[in-house]
Amino acid sequence: MPVFRFLAETSDKVAEGIQSCLSGASSYLSVPAVKKQLSNIEGVTPDNASNLVDGLIGLNTVMLSHGWEINDILERIGESRQLDLPDEQKPQLIKRLGSYLETPAIQEVARAADLAGERENFFHTVRVLTDVRPVFGDDPSEKPRAVVVNQTLKLQYFNDRSETRNIFIALNEEDLEDLRDAAIRALSEARNVKSLMDSSGLQIIQTEGE
């Protein structure tokens, strides 16, 4: 809602700059790149740029997944009580949003984001926790005789309801080496696939942060 209010209230110069940026964005089909280009427009903050792209992609994804008409969505936004716009600003917001949603950059990255989002869980953060556990003898009042070093992999992710969940997995040093090797291999495979796509002329749309 804040970014829609920004669109309704911003000047024609800023709105035209956004339109020009989105219309020319097909040469860099990357969500982070589009956000960066928009934030270079005078009068558009990085937060506004990020929220605008996310909002446009979200609206486009809803249209694709539900088969809704763009005019119906725009009308509902303009009449939203949460937005609470003066009557004279509603047509301007609807017109601007409609023209932005029709740009190839937004349409293509929205389709890519919709496909990329067809997964149950989404990675958020990872940590490897190391702890030391003392080994006591029969008499617990005596000093520990040894220690055990443990590693625990903590994976935090979002489920399909955007709720955060955690998984804790016990690891040893060999497991950590296996994880490292798997990650290095996956990065190499990703680079090879991207190179193959480049040589075939297919563009890769980056839907997530760099």
Write the layout of secondary structure elements.
Blueprint: H1 2-9, H2 12-23, H3 31-39, H4 46-66, H5 70-78, H6 90-101, H7 104-116, E1 122-135, E2 146-158, E3 164-171, H8 173-200
Antiparallel strand pairs: 1-2, 2-3
Care to describe what's here?
- The protein has 210 residues and is α+β, with helices and mostly antiparallel strands.
- It has two domains: 2-116, no CATH class; 122-199, no CATH class.
- Helix content is 53%, strand content 17%.
- It is built from eight helices and three strands; from the N terminus they run αααααααβββα.
- The chain has helices spanning 2-9, 12-23, 31-39, 46-66, 70-78, 90-101, 104-116, 173-200, and strands spanning 122-135, 146-158, 164-171.
- A hairpin with a 5-residue loop joins strand 2 and strand 3.
- The two termini are 26 Å apart.
Q: What is this structure, in a nutshell?
A:
The protein has about 210 residues and is an alpha+beta fold.
Keywords for this entry:
alpha+beta, 210 residues, single chain, 17% strand, 3 strands, three-stranded antiparallel sheet, elongated, 2 domains, 53% helix
Largest sheet, spatial ordering of strands: 1-2-3
- Describe the largest sheet: 3 strands, antiparallel
Number of domains: 2
Rg, Å, rounded: 24 Å
- Fraction of residues in β-strands: 15-25%
Specify the number of helices.
8
The helix content, as a percent range, equals 40-55%
The H-and-E topology, N to C, reads as HHHHHHHEEEH
Structural class: alpha+beta
